[in-house]
Every structure is written in structure tokens, then in C-alpha cells.
């Protein structure tokens, strides 16, 4: 399939698609709402196919890269759904390294998130991406099916699963004990939530277009936060000003970056909403943040 860019679509269509992937419309209603854009022999169903992820593009780091050790792991989660499985990536080294938990979007552990996990391993971190859909059989290999399963998972227990995964990762023999968390969309929200829950056990967080925690909870955050936002993602980005103020009041080191003309999901290189310039800049901020607060022992 020809690779499309956000500029190939009307912004209204991209906004409607954002509503669909976040569960504000079901498939039938979404297709009906975009029918007005189906012109020139292009059907609404064809437009949806063009907007959906193409995971052939999510392969910046090969899934058999010889520089890495890759594995599937299952972690006990007694306060959650009993256990949570995930994808582990680390460089081939005997040295202890900082660790980074990678939290997926509201679709489960797909190929894009696996690739992000390998990218972190190539940056010399031990990275683990848990699959929040474990209790429903795991990511089904299709984002739309994953989205349906996502609504069936006990949400509080899923958060407990992520907490269990974070503590397991932090306590591994190959860990220095310095834990970072990065997440995208739902995972960005979860990154903020884990910062609240883990307090000083978490050393750095990088939420991508994640909803902000309640102001009263921000005082519990100890981990430096580097937040990434899209200018056109107004529903989420509009919460940054209050979060910025609350983090300042709490004395938490933080930065916020808003990328002009970028859409929600701009880092996901499998969809037309991918913005290469914004994605590369944001990734640079993420790696630099983890280097500063996980590698060099900067005070939190």
C-alpha cells in the first residue's frame, strides 16, 4: 500500500479517525461519518484502510537484530490479573543497565511498540513492553480487534499489571535499579499514572500525548517528567499548562514539548499521522532524558 501522510487527508477526517480509535464511535458510525470524504472512486472502507496502521513500516530495528537479546517473558501480578506477559529487549552485554518500561497505546502490544522496545535496547537500556491484553489472550495481531479486547479488560487491574511489570523490571539482575517509563497515548496516560503510584521508585518518565493526572496527585510524583504533545491534539494538549504549573509547584524537574501542526500519534510510524520531524525530535528528548536521569545519576 502506498504510504500516505497526514497532509493527504482533510484534518476533519483525521480528527474523526482519532475519535474512532479512542472509542468515541464504533466502526459503522465512523464509516458513515466519513462517507462525505469518499469521492473519486474511493469508498469509506478504503479510507479506513489508508488510515489504519501498516506494521510493515514498523521495522526500524529488525526483530532478529544480532546486537540484541530478545525474549518473551511473563511476570506475576497478584494484585492485577494474575500475570502479565511482554516483550524484553536488551543489548548483548554482561553489564548492568538502566531499565525502561514501554507502555503501549489502547490496542495492546503491537509491532510498533515492539520496535520501540528494540530501539531503546539499541540505546543501551534494558526495555520491557508488557501487554495489557494478556488477560484476554494477548494482542490479537489486529489493532481493531485489539481495541475491542481493550474495552473488556479490568482497567484498574491492568494498571496493577503495569506496576508489577515495572517493579519486576527494576529488580532484575541486569538492572542498575534505575527505572524509566515511556508510553504512548493510553501508555502516556499510564506513564503519568505510574509516576504518581511509584513515587521515588521511578527515576524518569516520558509520556507521549498522555492525559495528565489530577492536580492533587501531582504532589506524589518524584520522577522527572518530559512530556511530548501534538499541537492539533487539543483535547489532551490543553491540559499541559495546568500540569506544568502543578509539577513546578511540586518541585518536580520537567519539560513539555508541543510539536506544531502534529497530530495525536505523531510518533507512530505505521500510520499517516506520523510526523517524521516531530517524532525524531521527541525521541531525542526521550533518550536524552533517560541518559540524564537513569544513566548519570542526576538527582530527582
Explained architecture:
The chain is α/β, with parallel strands linked by helices and 300 residues long. It folds into 2 domains: 46 residues, no CATH class; 241 residues, Rossmann fold (3-Layer(aba) Sandwich), CATH 3.40.50. Helices cover 38% and strands 20% of the residues. The chain contains 11 helices and 8 strands. Strands 1-2-4-3-5-6-7-8 form an 8-stranded mixed beta sheet, with helices on both faces. β6, α8 and β7 form a beta-alpha-beta unit. The longest helix has 20 residues. It is globular and about 60 Å long. The mean pLDDT is 94.
Task: Describe the structure concisely for a colleague.
The chain is of the alpha/beta class. It is 38% helix and 20% strand.
Low-confidence stretches: none
Strand-pairing-aware structural class: alpha/beta
CATH architecture field of the largest domain: 3-Layer(aba) Sandwich
- Radius of gyration from CA coordinates: 19 Å
> Order of strands in the sheet with the most strands?
1-2-4-3-5-6-7-8
Tell me, what's the shape? globular
CATH topology call of the largest domain: Rossmann fold
| Span between termini | 46 Å
Q: How many beta-strand runs?
A: 8
% residues in beta strands: 15-25%
Number of domains: 2
CATH superfamily of the largest domain: Alpha/Beta hydrolase fold, catalytic domain
The level of helicity is 25-40%
Q: What sequence of helices (H) and strands (E) makes up the elements?
A: HHHEEEHEHHEHEHEHHEH
CATH class descriptor of the largest domain: Alpha Beta
Amino acid at each position: 500500500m502506498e504510504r500516505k501522510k497526514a497532509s493527504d487527508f482533510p484534518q476533519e477526517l483525521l480528527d474523526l479517525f482519532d475519535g474512532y480509535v479512542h472509542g468515541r464511535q464504533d466502526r459503522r458510525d465512523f464509516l458513515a461519518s466519513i462517507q462525505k470524504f469518499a469521492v473519486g472512486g474511493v469508498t469509506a472502507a478504503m479510507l479506513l484502510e489508508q488510515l489504519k496502521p501498516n506494521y510493515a513500516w514498523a521495522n526500524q530495528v529488525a526483530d532478529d537484530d544480532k546486537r540484541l537479546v530478545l525474549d518473551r517473558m511473563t511476570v506475576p501480578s497478584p494484585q492485577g490479573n494474575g500475570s502479565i506477559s511482554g516483550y524484553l529487549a536488551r543489548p548483548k552485554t554482561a553489564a548492568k543497565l538502566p531499565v525502561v518500561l514501554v507502555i503501549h497505546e489502547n490496542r495492546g502490544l503491537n509491532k510498533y511498540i515492539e520496535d520501540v522496545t528494540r530501539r531503546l535496547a539499541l540505546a543501551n537500556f534494558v526495555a520491557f513492553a508488557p501487554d495489557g491484553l494478556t488477560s484476554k489472550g494477548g494482542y490479537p495481531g489486529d489493532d481493531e480487534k485489539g481495541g475491542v479486547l481493550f474495552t473488556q479488560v479490568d482497567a484498574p487491574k491492568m494498571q496493577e499489571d503495569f506496576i508489577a511489570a515495572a517493579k519486576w523490571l527494576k529488580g532484575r539482575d541486569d538492572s542498575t535499579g534505575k527505572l524509566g517509563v515511556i508510553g504512548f497515548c493510553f501508555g502516556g496516560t499510564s506513564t503519568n499514572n505510574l509516576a504518581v503510584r511509584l513515587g521515588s521508585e521511578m527515576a524518569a518518565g516520558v509520556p507521549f500525548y498522555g492525559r495528565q493526572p489530577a492536580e492533587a496527585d501531582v504532589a506524589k510524583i518524584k520522577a522527572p517528567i518530559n512530556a511530548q504533545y501534538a499541537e492539533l491534539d487539543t483535547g489532551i494538549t490543553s491540559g499541559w499548562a495546568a500540569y506544568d504549573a502543578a509539577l513546578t509547584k511540586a518541585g518536580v524537574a520537567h519539560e513539555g514539548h508541543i510539536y506544531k501542526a502534529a497530530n495525536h500519534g505523531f510518533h507512530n510510524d505505521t500510520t499517516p499521522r506520523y510526523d517524521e520531524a516531530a517524532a525524531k525530535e521527541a525521541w531525542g528528548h526521550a533518550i536524552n532524558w533517560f541518559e540524564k536521569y537513569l544513566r548519570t545519576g542526576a538527582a530527582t
